[in-house]
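Internal ticket #5521
Category: modeling
Description: The requester needs a full-assembly model to guide mutagenesis choices. All entity lines are attached below as received. Residue total reported by intake: 226.
Assigned to: D.W.
Attached entities:
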Amino acid sequence: ELKVEQNPLFLSMQEGKNYTIYCNYSTTSDRLYWYRQDPGKSLESLFVLLSNGAVKQEGRLMASLDTKARLSTLHITAAVHDLSATYFCAVGLGGTSYGKLTFGQGTILTVHP
Amino acid sequence: KAGVTQTPRYLIKTRGQQVTLSCSPISGHRSVSWYQQTPGQGLQFLFEYFSETQRNKGNFPGRFSGRQFSNSRSEMNVSTLELGDSALYLCASSFPEGISRAFFGQGTRLTVV
């Protein structure tokens, strides 16, 4: 059974600082996603990572994928308050399980002034 | 382009009742997946439909069922509601294969009293 683990689960940051969220998964994966969720809202798609060494960046967020280590990271650069949210990684498998995503527990990020 | 639309947004039901939730995917998307989100269990996959057929199913009891119509709209039904069914139910749509992100609707907040 595929397991996806994120750490840390809670992250309190000061504005301007850098930090990384880690996502480990237990089975060879077809693709990995990062989502953001604001309180009471739905999931917003941030990145899709499809191959070993893939790196995607948007604004202050950068995601990378190491399929050999079964690890993805979400790096936050010079955090600002607007980045406060819960961040989820999700892993997809191929074949008959294509439409199913397995999510990590989520990382609650709070950025303080 | 309209996003994924879920109705209703909020619902209060009594134990033992049944409920039907609706999801209209993004135009052109033919895969619809359903997820349950609770504080204790996080995001859990319920099922996925493609071309009116259930393609994947999560580990939920038979009280949870769904269907998809020829226009790709999907419904999920929960019968004999239990207090533990209180959750945010999220629907996601995507293209059924290839490089594809799942886009989520706003969700239906179900409260069972």
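Resolution: model delivered.
Comment from assignee: Residues 59 and 102 of chain B are 20 Å apart (CA to CA).
Ticket closed.
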